[in-house]
Specification:
Blueprint: H1 10-19, H2 21-35, H3 43-55, H4 60-77, H5 85-98, E1 116-121, H6 128-141, E2 146-150, H7 156-169, E3 173-174, H8 182-195, E4 200-204, H9 212-226, E5 236-242, H10 247-259, E6 264-268, H11 278-285, E7 290-294, E8 302-304, H12 307-314
Parallel strand pairs: 1-4, 1-5, 2-3, 2-4, 5-6, 6-7
Antiparallel strand pairs: 7-8
Helix pairs in contact: 2-3, 3-4, 4-5, 4-11, 5-12, 6-7, 8-9, 9-10
Length: 319
């Protein structure tokens, strides 16, 4: 189908296919059992499919939408065989995702205005620092000058980890000691970036959900202080979620979207987990574009999220 045109490089697509392998095997293993001995998509098959989608961490609300779309198609086409179910699911999920967020591929588009500021939020352990490091690497590969800001000052380890990535990618970092005011670090980072004529600033922030009110106050202060140096920043607030936690990722998304204006999402650690369906549910439910997904350890394995390529890999069977 032209609907599933390939726009990824062969190497990136192979990495995506491999990264979603466990999710795919888990899903199709259950689906095969559900349709065994049945030739027609009927109410029993749809009930089984609903359970499988929920168990695959797609989420209840998104699952209901998918089932409704398939029921409408069954009613329209009168007879649909179970052999066609894979293709129907692929088309309906792709159609659902294409109605949300931005275009097919949703990487950050950096304008001429400098600096372009990305504020990164997320709880400890989700791969936040790694995501920042990989983003910095990818921007640098495109010839952009990047500055990192270590404004997650609650843990000394967070500052040390960001320093390691700054050294590895060879980009400057602005930091203070543990316990420093995060807003002060953000202010210094923006000032430093302006002096260096940097293209992009990536600021690491709150790594805890200690209290929603405190979190909201902290992130609001960071934003307010940055605006004293450059108007209308941050340009993006990127929330990093650990895809392997399934429904817990939904809960974190709810907490952070309530605490601050999240503009984009990165879903990490999809390789090695059977919970890849969480990307479908999060993309649909929060109406916030999933911009990046983590499907491996390599620098290039933080991939731009392409809805059609994701669905294609999710439903791609082994030859």
């Amino acid at each position: 189908m032209s609907f599933f045109k390939k726009i990824f490089s062969k190497e990136k697509k192979e990495t995506l296919d491999k990264g979603l392998e466990k999710s795919k095997e888990n899903f199709f293993g259950k689906l095969s059992k559900a349709v065994a001995g049945k030739s027609k998509v009927d109410d029993d098959v749809l009930d089984e499919l609903e359970e499988i989608l929920v168990a695959s961490d797609v989420g209840v609300k998104t699952t209901v939408k998918i089932i409704d779309r398939i029921e409408a198609r069954v009613a329209r086409d009168k007879y649909l065989g179970t052999s066609e179910l894979d293709q129907i699911l692929r088309e309906e999920i792709a159609g659902l995702l294409s109605e949300t967020g931005s275009g097919e591929a949703a990487e950050f588009v950096v304008p001429d205005k400098k600096p372009y500021v990305i504020m990164v939020v997320g709880v400890n352990g989700v791969g936040k620092t790694t995501t920042i490091g990989k983003l910095a690497h990818q921007f640098k590969q495109k010839g952009k000058k990047v500055v990192l800001g270590a404004a997650d000052t609650f843990r000394a380890a967070a500052i040390d980890q960001l320093q390691i990535w700054a050294d590895r990618v060879d980009v400057p970092i602005v930091k203070q000691s543990m316990g420093s005011d995060p807003a002060s670090v953000a202010f210094d980072t923006i000032q430093s970036a302006v002096k260096q004529d940097a293209d992009i600033v990536i600021i690491d922030t709150a790594g805890r959900l200690h209290n929603k009110v405190n979190l909201m106050n902290e992130l609001t202060k960071v934003k307010r202080v940055m605006k004293k140096v450059v108007d209308n920043v941050p340009d993006e607030v990127l929330l990093v979620l650990d895809g392997s936690t399934g429904q817990n990722a939904f809960e974190q998304a709810k907490q952070f979207t309530a605490a601050t204006e999240v503009t984009s999402l990165a879903v990490t650690k999809l390789d090695g987990t059977a919970k890849g369906g969480v990307v479908i549910g999060i993309s649909d439910q929060f109406q916030i574009p999933v911009k990046y997904i983590g499907v491996g350890e390599g620098m290039e394995d933080l991939q731009v999220f392409n809805k059609l390529e994701f669905v294609d890999s999710f439903f791609k069977k082994k030859v």
